[in-house]
Structures are given as C-alpha cells and as structure tokens.
Write a structure and sequence with these properties.
Elements (H helix, E strand, L loop, with lengths): L18 E2 L9 E2 L2 H4 L1 H14 L7 E5 L3 H12 L2 E7 L7 E7 L5 E7 L8 E5 L2 E2 L3 H12 L3 E7 L1 E2 L3 H9 L1 E4 L6 H8 L17
Parallel strand pairs: 3-4, 3-7, 7-9, 8-10, 9-11
Antiparallel strand pairs: 1-2, 4-6, 5-6
Length: 207
Amino acid sequence: MTEYDKGPREDRWYLNLMAPNTKGDKFAWLDPTSLYINARAFNDLLDDLLADLDGVDFDVAAGLDAMGFVLGAALAARRGVGFLPIRKAGKLCVDTDAVSFGNYSGKTQDMEMRKPAFAAGTRVLLVDQWVETGGTMDGAIRLVERQGGVVAGLVAIAIEENERTEGYRQRFACVSAVVPGSRWQEECNAQKLSSFASYRPQLAFPK
C-alpha cells in the first residue's frame, strides 16, 4: 500500500496517479492513462462511475475516439450493454455519418459513426476520457441525435467547468470521477493538480 492508497474512497485516491504533461502545448495538460494500468485504480474508478450512474438507464455505451474507448468499453461490459465506437474520420469501412467539431486545441476535426448504428429511441451513454472545452462531445451528441438516438448521459474522468459544459449538465445526466464542488474540480478547472508536485510514474506500476 502506498501513501496514495490511504484515506476514504470519497477522496477518489486514484486521481493522484494522473500524470502531468511533459511534452508541451500541443498535448493535453495531463494524462489519465496511468489509472488504467493499475488494476485497483481502474476498478475503483469504474466502481465509482457506475455507482454515480445508478438510476441512469442506457442501452449502449458510446466511446469517443480514442481514449473514450477504454472507459466506454469497460463501463459497457460492467453494465451488460453493447459498445459503440465514435471514430475520427476515415477509420470506418462501412457507411458513416460525419460531423465537424472544434477540439480542445482549437483545431477543427471530423468524427464519424456507423450508419445506421441503432434503432431510433436507443438510449446512448457518451463516454470520453476528459471533457475540456466540450467541442468533441458536442460532435458526438449531434451524431447520436441525428440518428434518432437519445443521449442518456455523459461520462468522463473529469468534466471541466465552463459555459458549454454547464449547458450539458442542464440537459443531461453528467457523471465524472472528479466530483463537482471538490478540490479536484477546482484544480481541474485551473488545469494544475496539486498531486503533480509529488507525482512519480512508479506509483501506478502494476503489482
């Protein structure tokens, strides 16, 4: 047991394992993938997300390319529903529907979903690793609704607080490992975690 394994689950201890960006402005400001390689962290993360999803009914979990595939597929398997990948343009070899969106870096990109992906009225849970500006999620929402799907909710490790994500919270059930009102939320909004000061990659190594 490490120093990060102490304390109550309400503190979401595993968020301490997230790594700071070491490659500069072209990349996201942190990397949560170290949570996935650590079995206890990954399972505690999934337990917490599913507990907070209690009462949210969905028929399929859709993961956003690319790291949303990890959380989306895991949540789908745990809940016993299907998984739908929403991909960057040009990756799917079947008929697709596409939208353009602005990502967190301000670049315009295209994303695609197979067509048809589901019957009208299907409840779709949208899952991404992180929601920063909300542009990628906006593209996914449009794809689902264009095919007559119902967005059942949004899930991420963190949903930063801004005008667009506040609109999402008003429209949908939004669940994140970073709980609104917590010190984690404040630090994510500032895009600097206090845990970065003592971060060591070895803390997440599989046992």
